[in-house]
Design a protein that fits this description.
Pfam families: Glyoxalase (PF00903). GO terms for molecular function: dioxygenase activity. This is Ring-cleaving dioxygenase. By secondary structure, this protein is an alpha+beta fold. The chain has five helices and 16 strands.
Length: 325
Amino acid sequence: MNLKGIHHVSALTANAEQNYHFYTDILGMRLVKKTINQDDPSVYHLFYADEVGNPGTDFTFFEIPRAGHTYPGISSISGTSLRVQNDDALVYWENRLTENGVDHDGITKQGGRQIIHFRDPEDQRLTLVSDETNAGVAGGNVWERSSVPADKGIIGLGPVKLTVQDPAPTVKVLTDILTFQETGDYPSPVSGQDDIRVFSTGEGGTGAEVHLEVRHDLPKERPGRGSVHHVAFRVDSEDELAKWIDRIKKERIPNSGLVDRFYFKSLYFREPNGILFELATDGPGFATDEDPDHLGESLALPPFFEDRREEIEAKLNPLDTKRPH
């Protein structure tokens, strides 16, 4: 039982159309699934990823049309990273973000890697991270019809940053229950705060890290549009997920039990600081119910929602996601 890295990150948006434009036209990611929030079928769940939505490349969004502003703070997933192949790609991105009026901080260094911190139109806290020195989990493949050149495009999710006030219980879950090991640290960009600690799992590298930030100067985060809902970690198979469910139960951690998301199977639980973790299987994947050439072009519903298609489609705002072929 060894978690393989980041599986996906799920965040909140108040505007699916604006969100779709930014992540496909500006960031060049592929919409690999246009479906519904299975816990609230009246709103979209959009999955952006590499060419086919390989595990470790999915950045997903629940649409909550009336979501308020996010007030950043502790007990949160406070940063999502997106991987690019090398340092040269970051030069391209610095220019591209500027040309498209995207708020960014330019190329800087963090933990020995070159990065760019930037924000989407809803102030989602994002970082482009270079894989120039990466020797861990491999990235995905840029979609051939991306709006960004293949050698510059986003190839997956990088480190996820957690912000807490008391790190001890979160560290205990990461290292004693999950399969993370502490592998380094780097200075906090905030004066007077502790160093940010780095935890890795599986093959390690940019696709398998959690960065833990301790802040004593912030209240608890009030989530809204631009906040992150949960992070999911990769489990190899459903059989292995069953073992994880047993382990979490033995630790007496309240959890969801097995949840069938159709495209993968999942387990959800909150670590002691209130951050929602998911363990998700690598398969069966997003081509289960759609032609790989046409992923994300129409509303996909898992079989257990198909008999409600007419009712569901009537409640959703139209969102045209067909791309020219």
